[in-house]
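Quick entry, no commentary yet.
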Amino acid sequence: MRERELGEVVVQAVSGTHVVIFGMNMEQSGTSGLLGFAIQREELVQNGEVEWLRSSKSFPSIQPTTAHTKLRSIDAPFQAFQWADYTVSPGRDYRYRIFPMTGQPGSLQAGDPTVVDISTEVSAGAVHSVYFNRAAIASQAYSGRFGPNHPEDVGGEAFEWLARDLLSGMLVFVARAADERFALHAAIYETRYKPVLEALRQAHLRGAHVRIIYDARPQDAERNLEVIEGARVKGLTIPRENAKIMHNKFIVLSQDETPIAVWTGSTNLSNNALFGQLNVGHAIDDGQTARAFFDYWQQLRGDPERAELRQWTEANNPIPPLGGEHRETIEFFSPQSGRDEFRWFIDLAESAREALFMTFPFGIVKDFRPVFDHDDGVLRFALLEKYVNGGNAASRAKAIEEIKRARRHPNIGMTLGGRVFLDHVDGWMRESSGIGTFVNWVHTKFMLVDPLSEDPTTVSGSANWSEPSMNQNDENMLVIRGNQRVADIYLTEFMRIFSHHRFRESLAIQLENQGSLDGWRPRDLDESDAWVARHYDSDQEPFFRRNYFSSGLG
């Protein structure tokens, strides 16, 4: 949901399910003496709670900033023109009052507020249901709740907190197969999380027809089969041995032999996927989309060689012309021949007129790097697990330098996933190093093209933005055009995790450059309006962020 209100401060608010983001803007002439913004939130229910959003920084003349700084923004305002509230709940109505703050630390003065009413989305929708996990094992919030302990040492409370809506959403989808009228046809790369397999078994016991294609290549078969056998679903499974990588993660729901919905996204069945790395589950209640996935599944069940499967995908899932008229949701299935599918997504990313947001689990491959190498006023953000994947030391160094050069453009925002390495320094706690061993932080593969426009494009699925993922692997991607609700949910989650890891990357850079974090402490608030200047300097990223998220002024 989006709302925009005018006042001394122009405010655009965008809500997802668990996040509301704000873009603030002012005429530059009105920012003299501005010390930041205070944000008050009122929950619009009977006797609704009214509270100030809290600041993680403070004025040094009053109180130096520590990890435990949680001051009201009326006392320690936010010194940024783009902010977010990460403490909202789905399906609630909120009223926000955004105050420009002037004066002096300790005796601040609040200007006239801009008032914005907005409702948060719910994960489940009539057609599109979108579920993100928290992906915050690397956080002070996790460390504060559970200490430096692995979730398995903590127990169910930690897993529930980390999963947020993702696991429950998947289980609800499987539970829709209530009896013999229903069927579930799954194709899942990693089948290593027993409770979901047990839920599929329960659907079978209720009378539903259940079949699960799993990755049975030698390097993965043993680990997948161990859990499959433990969950007693071996008789419901179909091994896939002839794929380059059987990388799909989808489940088709049918009723009375008619496909009615599909669950897809980036989420494998593993502890790391559900509770560690960032992942999304996306359910679509659309018969045409479900039928397309079911037809693809029917081809996979025969364990075809790549050439045979390519022949089918090219005949039955042709690549549409970019920008042409099509349904709101279109499906891409892999493998396809050559570079056409890969090039299609690069061209789509290049088509952004206002903004582009992407997540990269395995770095930015060579052909995608030019997308971000433009100093052209289009805001482009990328969230990376790592800069590059594979190659020798020389090629990796060259690739990293190419990406670092691109991210120096003022309209480019990038960050790498990471954690806080400190150990009880100034109240900061060492954060968990994750659950997995290969991808710890960012496993989603989504793209948002002009997400705040009237006609946003959201891409989500299993392919890792590489040519082999599209011309060799079994993969699927969704392209959703014109659905603002879907774009808003993805965008708010992107900004949540991007902001989370950007701070952590700054510590990692200091650790790399200095060799240690000795003497490090969090940055305090500026006690003058000097912080404002970079937000009006077109040679700096905050300028582009301010303009885009507020959608107004220059």
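second:
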Amino acid sequence: MTGPQPLDTRDSTLNVALGDRYSIERELGRGGMGTVYLAEERKHARKAAIKVLRLEPGATPGSDRFLREIGIAARLSHPYIVPLIDSGEAAGFLYYVAAYVPGGTLRDRLRREGRLSIADSVRIAQEIAAALDYAHRNGFVHRDVKPENILFADDHAQLADFGVALACTPAESGTITAAGTALGTPEYMSPEQASGDRDLGSASDIYSLACVVYEMLSGKPPLRGSNARATMAQQVTVTPPPVRTLRPDAPVAMERALSRALSKDPSERHATAIEFAAELRLEEPVVGRRYPAATHAVAVLPFVNASSDLENEYLSDGLTDELIDALSKVEGVRVASRTSVFALKGKPQDVRAIGALLGVSLVLEGTVRKSGQKLRITAQVTSAEDGRLLWSQRYDRELEDVFAIQDEISRTIVSTLRAKSFANLEQTPPKRYTESVSAYGLYLRGRFALNKRTQEGVSEGITFFQRAIDEDPKYALAYAGLADAYSLLVDYRSVPNTEGFTRAKEYATRAIELDETRPEAHASLAWSSFIYDWDWPKAEREFRRAIELDPRYAAAHQWYAFLLAAQGRAEDALIEGHTAQELDPGSVSARRSLAWLYYYARRYERTLHHLESAIAMNPTAEETYRVLGLTLAIDGQHDEAERVLREAVAMPGAGSYTAGTLGFALGRAGKSDEARSILAGLEAAIEREYVSPVALATLYIGLGDNARALDWAERAYDDRRGWVAYVRVNPLMDPLRGEPRFAALVERMRI
């Protein structure tokens, strides 16, 4: 609605028609269902709000809806619903009269204050929840719960405007606004409402109320796109950030209640609005909920390098990794993954916001200063629930004491958890894989370089791991690091697979020979066996062994999911993929992998959902845009696919895969000349460098040239590209499935 206006002279007819009962003073606002005026009821000398619909020729749908709104308002008598006083028809107008609520709207208050106190937010939520519960029990879904429709009378909230309400009982379904129409306000629409679902229930209003509560706490709706259509798409596909990332002082239980009420699946939300409001004010989580408890969880934030020499950062990062690993061995404690915590490196945040983001109750942070052979390490533990400092300590030691310091800090964390009533926690002393401080330092440098996830970083990591092995030839972790590095070398260099995977298998096998209990080595060997050797039984054995050794090792679940997907075991793959994402919620890779799994399962709506989440986590990851463009193209959304892929090819790191995918999308959209121009560029590049046959096969599929596509698919088989492992399930290859050569290729894969 627009703001207050003087009375329009053209409505003088209305003034005359109602003049014996009401004195109309001014316009309060306009909306899709009519105009609202402030008036005074002459008989009782009280203020009233008159909502008026001018009857135009042929305006039957609007008048029918308006009459239905009057009918609903007349039947809903509740302290927190704006009451109906009168209604009727006069001089070509339909009107109804409601009590005037002088305290303004929640929108007015949010404009003034930005966000509300937690106590006020909960109180308003309780009052509106009571109104909604009453409406739901009487068979109506409001469908437009938003700050503009929440008014204040004597500081109490009242729900107004049932103009787009929907009957949710069979007896009423024919007499209220038709279902299947996305009426409402995009920022507060439930996913099912945004999708035009014809079967809206009370859960839709609960979602909308949760959006309002989220905005009261944070100052903005949970989701908002660049326009109405984009916002509605986000309601269907994007998970909003936890409210405590924006409002750290919000209680943990409140965040859990909001997370549940904002579930994309209506069946996962609260049964009633009253239940949602009650859970908002709980001090402890409700027993038996499906969301994960955070009380056994700790995050080790990246320790800060306080040395003047930036080269010492490997030591602060390495100490962080070692503490994560040590605490992960403690039964009964969940530790936030490395990916999740390192995503926060260099981004100072309130510890309560970190707790909300990572789902933890304790945060360990500290600094490392190295000067010669001297170390000064500070560490502190803080409660993520209320920000209280629980423990802090400073260590001044020699570099050779680094192992003892790690042990002491991890023991302190366990003691702190025990003090918080987890007395049954058991800590196994961490296993040391070398006694050489020099080899250990080189290993940390190798991991530091490898974690850069760049071509230069991978090459540098290989050098440091090899030097660590020179210092200690029996250092199993260094061999496992080499195995990972050579596997990544294939991804970060445009080279044939043979050298990278041969060495990856060699070093993983050596790590296992030295220590069979290292899950990283088994997972690395499993990945090479799957994606390069296509030895399905061996890959499955090694993945299962890695998970058996460490069920919380997210990468093993993530990679195993791809093996299962390639074999057509879609549901099992999705279970493993979701497990990896839950274990490592801050990992863009885990989220993107989940999107790939839904893509192979041909559930494109969920694919797009997870890709949107991955982009929100890292807007510069070129691979995510490539997968998004591919999915959109296969789903027939050609214009959007082209837009996304043109953006992707302009990003740093874009290569032949991305160019080939853009060519595929252009070919599918009928833009063959542009696609062939890209093809010519790729074929010319073959004279200068290795171009993956996957890019050319993909492009030829888009052009509909199955014979040439199969030529390059067979070349991909000869080059042992991992793309061929998904030959049974990749929707991209559907146009080839009737070809005898394709059937022979599937047969050769022995899937």
